[in-house]
Amino acid sequence: MPNTATTNLDGVNQEWSIADAAQTGLDFGTASFTFEAWVKFDILGNGTNNDIFGKFLSAGDQRSYRWSYYHETTVANRKMKLHTTSDGTAGTLVSIEKAVSLVTGTWYHLALAYTTSTGTAEWFLDGVSQGTTASGNTTIFNGTSAFHIGQGG
Which residues, at least 6 apart from 14, have a Cβ–Cβ distance to it below 8 Å? Predict the structure, then answer.
């Protein structure tokens, strides 16, 4: 049966994106938010952040947030990550993470519930909480970067 209900991105440089001016509701400021996605990785490079989605562009200090899966050959170092900034610069970049090991060729339902007021994330894998991580930013920068799904920024 042909694939008619998913998007197949190459994991290297393909993405879907929407310009900042064409969207509303993707700038969070101090509001809490929940992300979720069904993902299946065909390749996972060693030492690579595999972007799921975000508004994050280093050029011009337009970093807002980026949700990714970081993969290494050492299983203990694999993790979901959320990068946020409070002013778009590298100086306020905070990365919070949760250890989780994903493999290629398997569908996963990933979710992240972020409470901005406390800078706390609760991570989910296939509907099961993997725990919380604190010490994130309590304000998310409202940048002009496009929102992207897949490898971008």
Answer: 150, 151
